[in-house]
Write a structure and sequence with these properties.
By secondary structure, the chain is α+β, with helices and mostly antiparallel strands. Helix content is about 70%, strand content about 10%. The mean pLDDT is about 75.
Length: about 400
């Protein structure tokens, strides 16, 4: 045996010694499961078992919760429940009525209890056997146990057997503990399909939270720019305009500087307004999606025919996505399509927002050519929506988006 193998064997033996912390933890885990399995063992011994089991079904979820708590407290093992989040009492009971939980509580847990009793018996019997010589020697001289012929040799072997039992019991406890962790994780927790579904739900929920947070941050930046920098620029432009109109006796060079500064301030205001509108339109919060889309259509150079039917409330993030989708689509139609008219239809049906933008232009819209359609698809996907573009060469172009009304 090489030194490294011998060293690992010694370390492994020391880790499972009777006085080791691992032996105490394993024994405690098994012993804590005995009272949780006792009710099932009692029921299995009663007559009319089927009737008792039916009456016992609502308690299965409580037992599962207790078993998960035991493993979490003593092992740090987190076993997720099959019950949906925010499920009521009956929903949790129904989630617990699976063959896997039945198998755990009616088969695995009783067997584990018998194993735990065996481990506890091993500790007790081993301790008594290992110390037999000690407490026999402490007896008064001439005691019956000391009068047996060959008692010292026989009890010496008993002591060795007890010591061996004390050293073997931790290995049995470790084996049963590992089996307990595996069985509880497999039968009381989620299977692979359920884990993936729960993961998808968590990711969808976290994505919705990120989208909402990003939209809220855009609204905050928009308010800060509107109430801060934009107001200062407007005030600056007004002062420069007043100076431009009233100052008549300044040199021509100074007046030219004032005029240029006034024009630059006005251009900066226009750019800042476009930036603010691109972050989050104020009209969405003030007057709603219907009015915001009507404003976009009115500003479009191409005549737009509106058909809007909105009834229920729509999440603010979804309203923003719908607004930017229509705005980008109308901008593309005005710049690239050579269309003479655009038809905009927005309908709210079955909790979904259906948007269709149709123009009679030359077509050929391609997301790969930087027309903004790729960004629109990403915006729609960020709220679990879809966007499709049909634009053959020669036209017409139809953009269809479908968004959830609530995230």
């Amino acid at each position: 045996m090489s030194p490294s193998i011998f060293h690992r064997a010694v370390q492994r033996a020391a880790a499972h010694a009777p006085w080791s912390a691992a032996a105490r933890r394993d024994t405690l885990l098994l012993a804590a499961g005995v009272p949780l399995s006792a009710p099932v063992l009692i029921l299995l011994g009663l007559p009319r078992l089927w009737f008792v089991l039916v009456a016992f079904l609502p308690c299965l979820d409580l037992l599962s919760v207790a078993q998960r708590s035991r493993l979490r407290a003593l092992r740090g093992l987190l076993i997720p429940s099959r019950a949906p989040r925010n499920a009521g009492w009956w929903g949790k009971v129904r989630a617990g009525l699976t063959w896997r939980q039945f198998l755990y509580h009616l088969v695995v847990a009783p067997l584990q209890t018998l194993g735990a009793l065996l481990v506890l018996a091993g500790w007790g019997i081993g301790l008594v056997m290992a110390t037999v010589l000690g407490w026999i020697w402490l007896m008064p001289a001439g005691a019956p146990l000391q009068s047996r012929p060959g008692w010292a040799v026989a009890d010496g072997w008993t002591t060795l057997g007890g010591a061996a039992l004390l050293f073997l019991t931790p290995w049995l406890a470790a084996l049963l503990s590992r089996f307990e962790e595996w069985a509880a994780g497999s039968l009381l927790g989620l299977n692979r399909a359920e884990l993936l579904q729960r993961r998808v739900e968590d990711l969808a929920e976290s994505r919705a939270g990120v989208v909402d947070a990003a939209d809220a941050e855009r609204r905050r930046i928009e308010r800060d720019l509107h109430d801060g920098a934009q107001q200062r620029l407007v005030s600056l432009a007004m002062n420069l305009g007043l100076a431009r109109r009233t100052l008549k006796d300044v040199p021509a060079e100074a007046m030219r500087v004032i005029v240029e500064a006034h024009e630059e301030a006005q251009a900066a205001i226009d750019e800042l307004r476009d930036l603010v509108r691109g972050l989050h339109p104020v009209v969405l919060e003030d007057r709603g999606l219907d009015a915001a889309l009507s404003g976009i259509a009115a500003r479009c150079p191409v005549p737009v025919r509106l058909d809007i039917d909105l009834s229920d409330d729509i999440a603010p993030t979804v309203e923003a996505v719908a607004y930017f989708t229509v705005s980008e689509a109308l901008t593309n139609a005005a710049k690239h399509s050579r269309a003479s008219r655009v038809e905009l239809s927005i309908r709210q049906r079955d909790g979904r927002l259906h948007i269709q933008i149709h123009d009679d232009g030359i077509g050929g819209a391609d997301a790969a050519r930087g027309t903004g359609l790729t960004g629109l698809r990403k915006r729609a996907a960020s709220v679990d929506g879809t966007l499709a573009v049909t634009s053959p060469h020669g036209g017409p172009t139809t953009i269809t988006a479908e968004l959830p009304c609530e995230l």
